[in-house]
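Researcher: Watch the backbone:
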Amino acid sequence: MASARLRADPPLNNDGWLVKIGLLGGSFNPAHGGHRRITMFARDALGLDEVWWLVSPGNPLKSQDGMAPLAARFRSAEKQARNAPIRVSALERKLGSPYTIDTLRTMQRRWPKHRFVWIMGADNLAQFTRWKNWRGIARTMPIAVIARPGYDVAAVASPAMAWMRRFRTDAASFRKRGKWSAPALIELRFDPDPRSATAIRRANPDWASRFTGAPPRDQVTHDLIHAEREGAAA
């Protein structure tokens, strides 16, 4: 894994700790109101201080056809996160690793005072065993899974769920925990949101042209995101 110096700690709360941070990774191709809605729901359900959106340079488990430049996807996420307790980051690009397990372990080392929970949809749980060291991810930090229409059956029947079922807890119990531990699986359900990035791309294949301009600045590392440094990550 390429070495990277991470700087610029996020602001701390009144106790000197930004205690609880949710991490939502994805391509955000583009980001849309559904991302914001599930983020705010998860934040409230889990009692989080903030949620960080990790905009991936690329996902080896997905086709790169139709993938907009990282800077455009980042700007679309910035727009959706505006005036919300959400930070947008392209941290995976800085680390130079394509694997979530590397990203999460690096974040825990860099911000040891912060508590992180990984947030993902039921579609990802259904194919979680395809991720590098997926059990290692589960042992690194708690995982909150948000139900998605059409994926719940596959998620429940997945090998990952068979292993993680014993670690299930409800959101109310999780919020009351004085100290987080992993593995932990929190299942979240709320009214489904019909919006999808796929539908947006279908309706407007040229959507990324609306998100051009000067390089955006990472809201966690404060680095500028230059197009020429884009790579593959997942």
The mean pLDDT is 88.
